[in-house]
Design brief:
By secondary structure, the protein is an alpha/beta fold. It has helices at about 10-25, 35-45, 55-60, 70-80, 100-105, 135-140, 150-180, 185-205, 210-220, 225-235, 235-254, and strands at about 5-10, 30-35, 50, 65, 90, 110-115, 125-130, 145. Strands 3-2-1-4-5-6-7-8 form an eight-stranded mixed sheet, with helices on both faces.
């Protein structure tokens, strides 16, 4: 892309985005702004880009703007900016619908995106709604873009971004158990994470095969996988994951 990109907000998400963009497109012009100018300056020094004096200066200089601030800060930030026709704002505010964003960014166009921290590795599955070619091209540099058919689907898919974090809790628990059982801690950590990655890679390599079928091939009758799966189901361990996803979705819909 040869379009100048601006990122409002210089927190963790912005850092992941800038790191990934620098790897994928070293020559891209990036403008950075934050309500704390020192944060934008630190991010610019670390990964490149140019810190500018406030959100309006960023909007004056960029055609495509990523809104990477907390949901409660998004609307006040947008309302204080004079946008112009032809600009596009990609909002990463998780529970802020288009109906609230559109008046705040007019006459610019707004879309919703949801990348995750693996954008830093250019491996983020990023949600997008509605489609916008410039935004899609930008986030394709950071991983796979998944265009959602409507806003309710976008909201539901947002729950998977929370699920992403829970995977670390599962991995941490499994690695700690493995280490307590006598495996060196560094080996236990690598073993658990490599196993998780292998499971994902195997499933992604067979996109037409149901996940339940892949599980069935491993959980053979009388085997160790079947035994452990029975314990999880008896203790409603898998049900707890579903309940957690339901809880997050209910919050997003409020």
């Amino acid at each position: 892309m040869d379009e100048r990109v601006g990122i409002i907000g210089a927190g963790h998400l912005a850092g992941y985005l800038v790191e990934g963009l620098r790897k994928a497109a070293p020559g891209m012009e990036l403008l950075l702004a934050d309500r704390d100018p020192a944060c934008a300056e630190r991010l610019a020094r670390r990964w490149g880009g140019r810190a500018v004096a406030g959100n309006q200066a960023l909007a004056d200089g960029a055609g495509l703007i990523i809104l990477a601030v907390r949901p409660e800060d998004a609307l006040p930030a947008c309302r204080a900016i004079a946008f112009r026709p032809g600009q596009v704002v990609a909002s990463a505010a998780a529970n802020l619908p288009l109906a609230g964003l559109e008046p705040a960014v007019a006459p610019a166009r707004v879309v919703r995106v949801m990348p995750i921290s693996s954008a830093a590795l250019n491996e983020s599955p990023t949600l997008l709604y509605p489609d916008e070619p410039r935004v899609r091209a930008l986030f394709t540099l950071l991983g796979q873009v998944h265009l959602m058919p409507d806003e309710p689907a976008f909201t539901a898919a947002n729950v998977v971004a929370a699920f992403y974090g829970w995977i670390y809790a599962l991995a941490d628990d499994a690695a700690a158990w493995t280490a307590r059982s006598g495996v060196p801690p560094a080996t236990a950590r690598s073993l658990v994470l490599e196993t998780l990655r292998s499971a994902a890679d195997m499933a992604l390599a067979q996109p037409g095969k149901p996940l339940a079928e892949l599980l069935g091939a491993l959980a053979t009758p009388g085997g160790l996988t079947e035994q452990g799966l029975g314990v999880l189901r008896a203790g409603r361990g898998l049900d707890s994951w579903t309940e957690a996803m339901d809880a997050v979705l209910a919050r997003l819909r409020r």
